[in-house]
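[09:14] KT: can someone run the structure on this one? pasting the chain below
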Amino acid sequence: MYTLLIHVANEEAIMAETEELPAPADQVLYCINPRRRDGKDLHYVLPEVQTIIVPWWRINFIEVMPSGDEEEIEGPFVD
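[09:31] RB: done, structure tokens below
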């Protein structure tokens, strides 16, 4: 499961989870547990809704949030 920060055109960014990262040929993005970045409900989605479908033409870009499972990557510099 991936946590995404989705920047929707003319709206506040939303956080949601997805089972897999979108493919280049996808037309929509399926989002599970949509919410504002601070965890509050979205004003335009009913509180009982678990999944929303966002068309790509509404999305400016997506940030994939770190899951904490990745190893820390060391830079080329020395302390």
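[09:33] KT: thanks! The CA atoms of residues 34 and 46 lie 10 Å apart.
[09:34] RB: yep, looked fine to me
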